Every structure is written in structure tokens, then in C-alpha cells.
Amino acid sequence: MSEKIKVGVLGATGMVGQRYIKLLENHPWFEVSYVAASPRSAGKKYKDAVANRWLIGAEIPEGVADLTVQDANDEKAALGKCRFVFSALEMGKDEIKALEAAYAAEGIPVVSNASANRWTEDVPMLIPEINYSHLDVIADQKKHHGWDKGFIAVKPNCSLQTYMMPIFALQKAGYPIKRMIVTTLQATSGAGYPGVPSFDMIDNIVPYIGGEEEKTEKECLKILGTVKDGKIENAPGPLVSSTCTRVPVIDGHTATVSLEFDLPDDKKPSLAEIERVWTSFTSVPQELKLPSAPEHPIVVRHEENRPQPRRDRDTEKGMACVIGRLRECPVFDVKFVALSHNTKRGAALGGILNAELLKAKGFFEN
Hints:
Layout: E1 5-10, H1 15-23, E2 30-37, H2 46-49, H3 62-65, E3 70-71, E4 84-87, H4 93-105, E5 110-112, H5 128-131, H6 137-145, E6 152-154, H7 164-172, E7 177-186, H8 198-201, H9 212-223, E8 226-228, E9 231-233, E10 239-246, E11 253-261, H10 271-280, H11 284-287, E12 298-300, H12 309-312, E13 321-328, E14 334-340, H13 348-360
Parallel strand pairs: 1-2, 1-4, 2-3, 4-5, 5-6, 7-10, 12-13
Antiparallel strand pairs: 7-11, 8-9, 11-14, 13-14
């Protein structure tokens, strides 16, 4: 590739914004040329705006350190400085929704980490290995709003990344799923910074995360849905019952899953067949050799005590779903434990993979 695409980061001083800045360092396709945050950071050099609160544990990339932070509320300031923006905005949902639309209206595509537009019916909520075909709705989105080059695409809740690929792989292989019980054990980094108070987390598990159970039970239906008449229609199933907990782990969301197939007993897959489906699964990101795509999207481990966050979250650069303890379930059909890296696949690196897919499909052409 001859020249890198210049990109911006909205909410660049926050935790997810910082991860975008670091993960985009030396990216083969993209180069950060524009950073924006709240008015209190605007006008400062990036390195000064994040002084004493750079959270990533490595040096600020040289190419970004001296960039002047702009006011994220001024969408026109980005014109001519970047081809598209990553949105890591931290504000009210209505404010984010309006601001992302304002950037799109100015002809600046928005690849968002925020939840504000996840349920907008003409906005694709992407896991590139699963619902790449939802990119088709962008043409309708642009037509609906009268946008020329701008559009909005979002990523789903981080906890879904833990188990959606294995579920999709089974359904794609001809093994539809009727219902599931999911319990998530979510890392503290998923709460952002400063996040959950230490007194609540040390020697403790918090059995409630506001809004997470609703997201876990419903977002999967949009991801598995289809584009029809200019909008995304939810899939009718599977039916999901979830319990979402916060555990004293820094990075890496774990989920325990029990599922029942929507098949007669003699048509249900064996454990060996399920593992074959998972380990052979690849999709469009692998075919296109996108820079951030894992070579093996699903990795199966056979040790009785894996996956574990500390040992397995960085598998395939933090972009794989790692599965273990696949076994028969005495209530449903099978059960397993799955793990994904919530601040890589589930956040900034997942957003970068979305942008890579959009670029490869021509959505950032002039």
C-alpha cells in the first residue's frame, strides 16, 4: 500500500481512545493525524492532555504526542485532516448519537465503539467474521440521511465477542441453536477508568452490571439478522438468558455457555463435530488477510483448567475466541467456557478490524 489513510480518534484522551492511539502505531494501512476530546483538553498537545493519566503502559506514539487536541464537539474541525474517525466518545447516548451523525453529515465516516447507535436500524453492528454482509445497509443509511461520503458503523458490546463466533460457526455449519444460558465473568477494564472502586472488587464478585444482560440477550439477534428493505431485521433466535458479573480480573471476559440445538436428537452434532466446526472456521477477514484479523478466529484448548484470562487472553494478538471445557450438558445439549480479550477484540482492536473491512470493501474511497 503506497500511502496510509489519515484517521482521527474522537475521545482520544479516554481509556479506549488511548488504546486506539497505541494500537494504530505503525499500522500498515492507517495513520493517526487528528485527535479530539472534551473542551477541557482542546488546545493542548496530546501528550500534555494525557499527562499523568496515560494508561496503556507504553510510551505515547511519537507521531501523536505533539498533535493538538481539538474539540470533539466541532465536527467541522476534522475536515481535510482525516478520511474517517474512530469514535471512543464518553458522553450521554443522545449526545453521542447526534455528534456521530454530525460527522457523517460532513462526509466523515464514523467507526464507533460507542453504544449509542447500536440499535439504529440502518447502522451495521459488526463482528466482521459474522455479519460482514450487513455492510450492504450503509447505502440505505446514506440515502436515508442524504449523506454523500459519511456513514456510521459500530461494534457490539464487548461481552458478546466471547461467544458469538462459536455460536455463528455452528449455525453456519447447519446446527441451529434454540436457546442458551450464558453467564459472563467480565474484567474490570470493561468498566473504563477509573472504573469500579477497589473496595468493591478486591476479594469480591459483583453480580450485576447495569444494562449488560439486556445487551447480551438482544444484540446477538441483530448481529445474526439480515438486511431487508433498507434496515437490519433481527434474527428470531436463539433465545438467550444471561447473568453478567464483574470479577477481579484486569483484562479478558469469560463466559460459561450451555446451549440447546434446534434439531432432533439424531441430527445434533457430536462433541468431535462441534470442535471440527470451530477449529476449521474462517471467514472474510481471513480471506482478505486483514492486518488485525486472527489467522484462527476460534481456538480450542483441551486442558481441564483452560481458558484462563492471564494465560489465554492474548491468543492470536488478543483477537481469538478461546474455548475450553467442551462437554455434554445434562440440561441442554452441550456446554463450554469461552474467553476473549475485552479491550482488544472487544474494544479498540475490534474497531480497527471493522475499519480494515470497510477499507477493503471500498468504503473509504474518495
